[in-house]
Design brief:
By secondary structure, chain A is an alpha/beta fold. Chain A has helices spanning about 40-55, 70-80, 95-110, 130-140, 190-195, 240-245; strands spanning about 5-10, 10-15, 35-40, 60-65, 85-90, 115-120, 140-150, 155-160, 165-170, 175-180, 200-205, 220-225, 235. In chain A, the strands form two sheets. Chain A has a nine-stranded mixed β-sheet with strand order 9-8-7-10-6-1-4-5-11, with helices on both faces. Chain A has a two-stranded antiparallel ribbon with strand order 2-3. The N and C termini of chain B lie far apart (about 55 Å). Classes of the chains: A alpha/beta, B alpha/beta.
């Protein structure tokens, strides 16, 4: 029996090629005018969901975003990749991960998916929290850092990239899977698909409609630039390199 | 008074060095008692009891914990924290990254990931945007519990001359059966561990093939070093995933890091910025890695690395 639907999280982030810097007064980061993209890990999660559907193992792929109105652009891209429909929960201020997980949990209550796929982390805040928190709130299994996903009926076998190597887990559906880099290579979007995506449904919801009030459990005090490393010296050859290393007591 | 609980990482018989680094971070929190929770054997608890600065080790033994699954461990940790802890720390390893957010959600508590410095009991520093920005973040006073993962590269290990008491506990918590361990594939384990090695030799895409990546392994063997790799090298299949260094791989702080054929993308550099000495070997004199390297050598790695290995061997 195929999975009824897969919910995929799509976060709008500053493109990974942009070198982000803190504002001079430390009040935030300079993102004005920066190129925005789908969080690369979320793109991999979507690609995997689409492949599962294309293999006939799922019937529908829904992409969900939490962010400003502009985040509709990333959801449209996700629809062009092949998602069936999209939901944007529109917020003006970024949510903390636990609130993000609460929002996703409410969407699960509405949509009743058997599988939720998210990127393992977003490349802006680098938190790596939302999927695990969602699994806890939902009281369902989590399989994080996935590099291989095999659906076998009501059970999913997930290979995870962990510090010691590759771990394989078996989880019962419904479940949350967060994906790592080497799970797949996301497809490119073709122009006709972009045109088609314009006709696909994209619902916009508010936090109020989901009954969620953000908690604001923490606040940013300051954003600093990292301490730069001192630029070192070039050595002309291997012999000099070895002499330098020996001088420093490193070899 | 702050009461900090550290979740120990172990493999069933040995305590992971990351736990000693978490203690190092926790003892910097003012007015704190630091306890360690071992969801494992008495042997591991005994090792945790030697960590300097630890007041008490709480050992919970349960066969269900053998596979160290987050869904199984998290409710037990949450139950202990509810007895009166103000902070729960775990290492920012794949073990801690997987587990701690699940604990935080069960406690309805905020989590700070990758803390690299303690400014007060509620204020911490952590990297964001692949380390391009350092965020100083403060948890609001109305939050009774703070969950955090500790960026292990930012802290040294505490000494092992402590003598904490070990309290064996049984926790009455319903544990889920929906997640099952199947298998673990480990690569070559006779090499030094990437996360604790004093010297690391890393290879990048320029190595060109898994066969040629052996040059890195030979140099590492000569130096008694661990082997690392850039994302590009892992993606290309030259090295296994557990060797990846960088934003989404391992964050390391060796005494000596030798980067061979690695251009130095910011995502890679964030994984090594705490290395004491960085050596870069690259044929492209304009590669960004030379901006951060202490010692750079411009040239063909296929000449330089064998020469380096040979000269080291003949010393």
């Amino acid at each position: 029996m195929a999975i009824n639907r897969i919910l995929v999280g799509i976060k709008r982030v500053v493109d990974y090629n942009v070198r982000v810097r803190p504002k001079a007064d430390g009040s935030g980061v300079m993102t004005e005018g920066a190129k925005m993209s789908i969080n690369p890990f979320d793109e991999i999660a979507l690609e995997e969901a689409l492949r599962i559907k294309e293999r006939g193992q799922a019937t529908e792929v829904i992409v969900v975003g939490i962010g400003p109105s502009d985040a509709q652009a990333q959801l449209r891209t996700a629809l062009a990749m092949g998602a069936d429909r999209a939901v944007l929960v529109q917020v003006d201020m970024p949510l903390e991960p636990l609130d993000g997980a609460r929002v996703l949990h409410q969407l699960i209550v509405r949509e009743q998916p058997q599988l939720v796929m998210l990127g393992k982390q977003a490349i802006d805040d680098d938190n790596n929290q939302t999927g695990q928190m969602l699994a806890a709130l939902w009281d369902r299994p989590q399989a994080t850092f996935a590099s291989k996903v095999e659906i076998n009926g009501e059970v999913v076998r997930v290979t995870r990239e962990v510090d010691a190597g590759l771990q394989t887990l078996e989880v019962d559906l419904p479940a949350v899977i967060t994906v790592d880099l080497r799970l797949n290579e996301p497809r490119y979007v073709k122009l006709p698909d972009i045109m088609k995506a314009k006709k696909k449904p994209l619902d916009v919801l508010t936090l109020e409609a989901l009954g969620i009030t953000p908690r604001h459990r923490m606040h940013a005090v300051r954003h600093d630039a990292p301490t730069p490393r001192q630029k070192g010296v070039l050595v002309p050859d291997v012999a000099t390199l070895l002499a330098e290393l020996a001088n420093r007591g490193l070899v | 008074m702050n009461r900090i609980l550290i979740v120990a990482e172990h493999d069933g018989s040995h305590l992971n060095a990351a736990t000693a680094k978490c203690v190092s971070c926790a003892v910097q929190v003012p007015d704190a008692q630091v306890d360690v929770m071992v969801l494992g054997s008495a042997a591991v608890a005994a090792q945790a009891a030697t960590l300097a600065g630890v007041a008490q080790v709480v050992q919970v033994e349960n066969p269900a914990n053998d596979s160290q699954l987050a869904a199984v461990l998290a409710p037990q940790i949450a139950a202990l924290v509810r007895e009166g802890y103000t902070h729960v720390f775990g290492p920012s390893t794949t073990f801690g990254k997987d587990l701690m957010p699940r604990v935080a959600a069960l406690l309805d508590a905020p989590q700070l990931s990758d803390i690299m410095a303690v400014e007060s009991a509620r204020r911490f520093r952590r990297p964001i945007y692949a380390g391009n920005v350092i965020l100083i973040v403060e948890v609001e006073a109305d939050q009774p519990v703070i969950v955090a993962t500790v960026r292990t590269a930012s802290f040294g290990e505490v000494t092992r001359d402590g003598s904490a008491s070990v309290l064996v506990r049984t926790l009455q918590v319903a544990l889920p059966l929906h997640t099952r361990f199947v298998s673990m594939t480990q690569a070559n384990t006779d090499r030094p561990d990437l996360q604790t090695a004093a010297t690391v030799v890393s290879g990048g895409r320029a190595l060109g093939s898994a066969e040629q990546f052996k040059l890195i392994e030979q140099l590492a063997a000569t130096l008694g070093a661990a082997v690392g790799a850039s994302r590009a090298a892992v993606d290309a299949g030259y090295a296994p995933n557990e060797l990846q260094v960088g934003q989404t791989g391992k964050i390391i702080s060796p005494q000596l890091y030798i980067a061979v054929g690695i251009s130095g993308a910011i995502q890679h550099m964030t994984g090594i910025k705490d290395a004491k000495t960085i050596v870069a070997i690259n044929k492209d004199a304009d590669a960004p890695i030379f901006e951060s390297a202490d010692l750079g050598l411009v040239g063909d790695l296929f000449n330089i690395v064998p020469e380096l290995t040979q000269r080291l061997n003949s010393r």
